[in-house]
Amino acid sequence: MSQRTSVIAGNWKMNKTTSDARIYVEELIGLVAGKEGVEIILCPPFTCLAEVNAMLEGTDVRVSAQNMHFEELGAYTGEISAGMLTDIGVTDVILGHSERREHFCEDDESLAKKVPAAIDAGIRPILCVGESDEEREAGSTETKLERQLTQDLAGISGGQLAGIIVAYEPIWAIGTGKTATPQIAQEACAFIRKTLAGEFTPAAAAQVRILYGGSVKPGNITELMVEEDIDGALVGGACLTASDFARIVDFGR
């Protein structure tokens, strides 16, 4: 396990009303109070962001949006800008999740605008990259990861790289019950770090936290977290129960 501070982020996706969120956060605060050595991030839907952030005031838990637009304002019906997020205290944003790429046509060109827009607004991007089952079977995992990283991060400088979190999410393991073995996950995360070192500098790449995402549960988090280049997890379904998420924060213990 690396010396970088671990990160456990829970992506609620399109789940929980505001009242559901209140119950969840009240329970979670008690479960993770005083937890050190790990950064905790909750990623609620837009409707819950302000309420969750207010409830977490005075704690170390950060609040992340699940998406944002790269423009500051304008005729973009249904979209949310970085300024709107910072206005309610949001500190992080997931960008490029495979579900956004697949279902909402989010591409590398738009992500190359979103990443610097988030940074300029003082929001930390959590950039998701990953390959499909077909791409993995074809042996093109590294090609896919390299393309996503180089294109999505084309608008930032080496000095900004350490302020970004990268999440490796193999598409074939998201919501399927399949989990990449620790070895597979480590190999991909190590390749991501190598690619970042080549595009920027080894020193900058060494500071980047790289998360694994894909059917992470209390039962498999421990073996993932011992890998050198895995600095945490972006958790989906298993984060929807506060007790399960708290166990993952505690690395499965």
Overall CATH class: Alpha Beta
How many strand elements?
Answer: 8
- Strand content is 15-25%
CATH 2nd-level architecture: Alpha-Beta Barrel
- Helical coverage, percent range: 40-55%
End-to-end distance: 16 Å
What is the C-alpha radius of gyration, as a whole number of Å? 17 Å
CATH homologous superfamily designation: Aldolase class I
- CATH-defined fold name: TIM Barrel
Give me the strand/helix succession. EHEHEHEHHEHHHEHHEHEH
Could you report the average pLDDT, rounded to the nearest whole number? 95
Content-based structural category = alpha/beta
Low-confidence stretches: none
Order of strands in the sheet with most strands: 7-6-5-4-3-2-1-8
How many separate domains?
Answer: 1
Helix segment tally: 12
Instruction: Indicate the overall shape.
Output: globular
